[in-house]
Amino acid sequence: MVKICCIGAGYVGGPTMAIIAHKCPSIEVVVVDISVARINAWNSDQLPIYEPGLEDVVKQCRGRNLFFSTDVEKHVYEADIIFVSVNTPTKTRGLGAGKAADLTYWESAARMIADVSKSDKIVVEKSTVPVKTAEAIEKILTHNSKGINYQILSNPEFLAEGTAIQDLLNPDRVLIGGRETPEGCKAVRALKDVYAHWVPEDRIITANLWSAELSKLAANAFLAQRISSVNAISALCEATGANVSEVAYAVGKDSRIGPKFLNASVGFGGSCFQKDILNLVYICECNGLPEVANYWKQVIKINDYQKSRFVNRVVASMFNTVSGKRIAVLGFAFKKDTGDTRETPAIDVCKGLLGDKATISIYDPQVTEDQIQRDLAMNKFDWDHPIHLQPMSPTAIKQVSVTWDAYEATKGAHGVCILTEWDEFKALDYQRIYENMQKPAFIFDGRNVVDPEKLREIGFIVYSIGKPLDPWLKDMPAVA
Ligand SMILES: NC(=O)C1=CN([C@@H]2O[C@H](COP(=O)(O)OP(=O)(O)OC[C@H]3O[C@@H](n4cnc5c(N)ncnc54)[C@H](O)[C@@H]3O)[C@@H](O)[C@H]2O)C=CC1
Ligand SMILES: O=C(O)[C@H]1O[C@H](OP(=O)(O)OP(=O)(O)OC[C@H]2O[C@@H](n3ccc(=O)[nH]c3=O)[C@H](O)[C@@H]2O)[C@H](O)[C@@H](O)[C@@H]1O
Questions:
Q1: Is 108 in the pocket of ligand 1 (CB under 6 A)?
Q2: Comparing C-alpha atoms, which of 265, 274, 273 is closest to residue 417?
Q3: Cis status, amide bond into 440, omega within 30 of 0
Q4: Which end of the chain has fewer beta carbons closer than 10 Å to its terminal beta carbon, N or C?
Q5: Do 283 and 131 form a contact (C-beta atoms < 8 A)?
Q6: Is it the case that residue 385 has pLDDT exceeding 90?
Q7: pLDDT of residue 402
């Protein structure tokens, strides 16, 4: 029986290994982690991450050929194939701080593999890493290899949160990079055989190690660039009376451009787009390519601009101050169908409003009060370290309250900000919300989920990203 061990039981390691176990009954899969709480949760009825469809798959396989354990060394020792899916956060100190990837967790995993292994291993980079990481890992593993043969493969993950199970079951492609040696090719074939249990052969593509590593960073940069492009156009739409949804539809009808990923928003969030672009920028700078670095930096600058533009709209519309005003925030996760808040635009928007002394009441169907308080108190980039190593803030921000009900959150509010596109926000009783709010009642839709005309009929003053402006807002220009 082939044995797989995955180091890192997070958003990638957990779902990816669950699907491998589900599709490959002949393979034993063990997911290990240094976080005891995380492993306990994987072994309980309350999984540590919310992902549609995940619970069913885990329940089918757990205890059969899928296991979760904190005994990292034992399972690494026994495995034939080791996936490494640990955090690769942005460095906050020292050389490359604010841009370069922090490979501390990767390096410690590699050193542990080297220490405990007694048989040949295929080590798979599942985390997103800088180009050439495989070379560094190879050096760590082979420095004192005691005759053990290690093959390093790059097998980046392209799943998106909220749709992870579908993405894993039916991927656009699986990418495997390896050394172009006989041993390298053999290792690539072994990993191909795993995916071939359910992925059509023509969707499993192979490449050299550096192409595979770079393709992941490039794919995320291209995706984020589309959002910054449409968000940049959204600002121009507001200035000219064009409607960004109509523009995106017309642009996306060109088959060379395509319709996906053109939704204007308050800004992209999530654990990877910003981190991976910063990483790409750093690699370009290190390779003497400042023009290329500046090109990609602009994707992040537009994203920051979009978030501050939104805050400025809120404040400017409400007579240039939100001091002492109550603002309801609907949605805190970085996108719908996930409880993940890493790098969510809601953090920047809330911090901006708090900076102007607002009182905020928040509702998100999947995010707890504890998580929101941690997020608002945390320093930039700290969110991307293992949970038990993140600094805890001793005090909660008292101007922020969190409820489990959208009507409760909006009661008595002067304005409502929609920051995540949860489907349930489309079906809320806005008449009821209006009646319980202060007047004039404002809605700022950062995800274009509500119909502005219908809400205006109720009496709301409505701002929707990239849509023709409410007459009220036209007279109150917001400077970004
Ligand atoms: N979240 C996503 O949708 C995607 C993430 N990625 C990449 O995958 C990697 C992991 O991301 P996530 O799963 O989101 O992170 P995560 O934070 O959810 O999971 C990482 C896990 O690794 C554990 N860990 C860290 N060091 C360890 C060690 N030395 N030994 C054992 N366990 C260790 C942590 O405790 C944590 O549970 C990152 O490089 C990320 O860029 C790639 C594609 C999608
Ligand atoms: O490397 C990663 O971590 C992953 O990053 C993204 O996945 P994810 O961040 O989970 O979610 P996305 O659906 O890409 O959304 C990212 C952000 O962009 C925003 N977005 C997305 C699409 C769009 O049209 N407009 C828009 O503002 C979302 O609301 C969200 O805040 C990529 O889509 C995955 O392919 C990749 O594997």
A1: yes
A2: 265
A3: yes
A4: N
A5: yes
A6: no
A7: 97
Residue ranges for the binding site for NAD(+)? 8-13, 33, 38, 86-90, 127-128, 161, 272-275, 342
CA 79 to chain centre: 29
Point out the ligand nearest to the CA of residue 221. Answer: 2
Catalytic residues: 272
Residue-level pLDDT at 396: 80
From the CA of 388, give the closest atom in ligand 1: 35
Nearest CA, atom 36, ligand 2? 158
Q: Ligand 1 in contact with 184 (CB < 6 A)?
A: no
Could you tell me what percentage of the chain is helix, strand and coil, using 3-state DSSP and rounding each to the nearest 5?
45, 15, 40
Three-class SS of residue 438? coil
225 residue type, one letter: Q
**What single DSSP character describes residue 5?**
E
Tell me the mean pLDDT in the region 84-101: 93
CA of 154 to the centre of ligand 1 (A): 15
Q: Does residue 479 surpass a pLDDT of 70?
A: no
| Interatomic CA distance for residues 458 and 430, integer angstroms | 8
Cβ of residue 11 lying under 6 Å from some atom of ligand 1: yes
Q: Find out whether the beta carbon of 38 lies less than 6 Å from any atom of ligand 1.
A: yes
Ligand 2 geometric centre to CA of 270 (Å): 7
Q: Output the average pLDDT for the chain.
A: 95
The rounded Å distance from CA 89 to ligand 1 centre is: 9
131: closest CA among 270, 9, 289?
289
Residue 476 and residue 317: Cα distance in Å, rounded? 6
Task: Return the DSSP state at 361.
Answer: E
What b/e string do you get for 386-400 counting C-beta neighbours within 10 Å, with b at 16 or more?
A: beeeeeeeeebeebb
CA of 85 to the centre of ligand 1 (A): 5
Largest CA distance in the chain: 75
Residue 198 has pLDDT above 60, yes or no: yes
